[in-house]
Input
Amino acid sequence: MEVILLERIAKLGQMGETVKVRDGYARNYLLPLGKALRANEGNKKRFEADRAVLEARNLERKSEAQTVAEKLDGKSFIVVRAAGETGQMYGSVAARDVAEILAAEGFTIARNQVELNQPIKTIGIHQVTIHLHAEVEITVELNVARSAEEAERQLKGEDLTSAEAIYGVDEDALKPENFFDPDAQDEDEEEEA
Output
């Protein structure tokens, strides 16, 4: 199906372009959300008549997104979750959780604006991209830890999933060659000799 885009859509096109998309994408997403119109003569004339209003509305949304971006860009948020000793979380942090965390800080972000290819399942510091507008994108930092104290230690650069942090032992001490010496004789062999 051919549609006329009413706003810039990433990986698809700019406002006013006529693009060919799959029927389901147009019917289920672009048309109901008012992001596009079916490409026919009546809609082309309607778009040209409303073009100035659409461009002004798009510019207004972009400026609002940029003001939010200036406040939010580069900020760090602490997320406390239960996790095992190795740093593997018992649950995960999904886009919905990120939106709720930002909402608790006073930012209204929809979960579809949060770009997470897969949920966060380990503790540590994670970079999350947020799309505020088709042309405005920012990155926030999520400090996922088991407690606020661990979050502070992670900020200082400490690795909470290393053997030293977990067991209090240097990583080299846990190598197999430190447990077994192939040149040493077995105690039973020494008694027989």
Residues 13 and 19 are 7 Å apart (CA to CA). The mean pLDDT is 84.
